[in-house]
Amino acid sequence: MTSAERVAVVGTGLIGTSIAMAASRAGDQVRGFDADPEILARAAVRSGLSAAGSLEESVRGATLVFVCTPIPELPPLVAETLRLATDAVVSDVGSVKSRVMREVSATVGPSELARFVGGHPMGGSERSGPEHASPSVLDGIVWVLAPSPSTDEGAVARLESWVGRVGARPVRMEAERHDRLVAVVSHLPQVASTALMDLAATEEAGEPEILLLAAGGFRDLTRLAASNPHLWSDILLANQEAVARAIDLYVERLARLRDEVLAQDAPSVEEAFARAKQARLTLAAKPQVRSGVAVLQVPVPDRPGVLAEVTATMSEAGVNIEDLQIVHSPEGGRGTVHLTVAADAAPEAERALRERWFEPLRLA
Questions:
Q1: Which CATH superfamily does the domain covering 6-173 fall into?
Q2: pLDDT at position 290, please?
């Protein structure tokens, strides 16, 4: 049995508090510190962590420390934490790794750097603050670990073991590669969502009905536009070269699709949609779902308990839900549930839903 750790969390926002909650759930002792006493107090109520009055107090005696602050604050705080917590493995949760690793490496000695493992739990949401924290934020997510060449292998292995114990999946990755990949799958979606929402809000300001026409697709694509502006500004500027390249590649594909539409090149337009559809269906499937997936669109009334009816129906039919999305109608009173299930389970899912008077439509 793995022994409990003494965990310290520095920065008790959404991710920091979620880590504290997951650690407590796993049986660890947890202490936390935040420069904002009000945020720390809210995190303590939410997670049950022991609130410390200073950074030094929070990391004293800790075996694992997670620094969970905005990116500009990470390097000096990590360096100070390594000096104070002399027996702890220290990690951060920044979504950009190269800059953090480079600046920490320049300010601490070899013995301290040996205990630092750069990290990035690939979880969270557009919401912020400890009141939105939950241990489930970490359940099943990929948690990237980006050790430097100077990091001790024992420190990495210890952190890997802990990450697995709280329900996440540790994946080792070199810092530069991490930054290049997240620029495409994490940072670019935020940019695209923000740009699209800004376009609708400003370029069409003379059309007050435009947002009334916004259906589920627009709402899905612009969900990330509700994210913390200051946080995302820091992230994009810290990963500027990789983000700029990702935007350039995206613009190239948009321009290509634009030209195909203007040329009325139906085969090329359809092929672009088909490639994207197949890639999206693959993304929705867990690795063990070998038969592929199907997406069922289920219109539902907007009333309490209806989602529970849909999920209970799937449970009673023995059909596992691989993914689930809810799209609310702008008119109110109804919505649509998109269920992703294994392809070979789709007929049974449709049958069970129809028996409950739902009218599912198979999209793929």
A1: NAD(P)-binding Rossmann-like Domain (3.40.50.720)
A2: 47
Q: Give the domain 284-362 fold.
A: Alpha-Beta Plaits (3.30.70)
Measured in whole angstroms, the distance separating CA 300 from the mean position of its chain's CA atoms is: 27
Sheet with 142-147, strands from edge to edge, namely 50-51, 29-33, 6-10, 64-67, 89-92, 116-121, 142-147, 169-172
Q: How many other C-beta atoms can be found within 10 angstroms of the C-beta atom of residue 313?
A: 19
Mean pLDDT (10-residue bins), the chain, 364 residues? 83 93 93 95 92 95 95 95 95 95 94 96 78 86 94 96 94 96 94 91 74 72 85 93 96 96 95 88 56 82 87 92 74 75 90 91 79
Of 310, 304, 324, 293, the C-alpha closest to 352 is 310
Q: Rounded mean pLDDT of the chain?
A: 89
Residues counted in the chain: 364
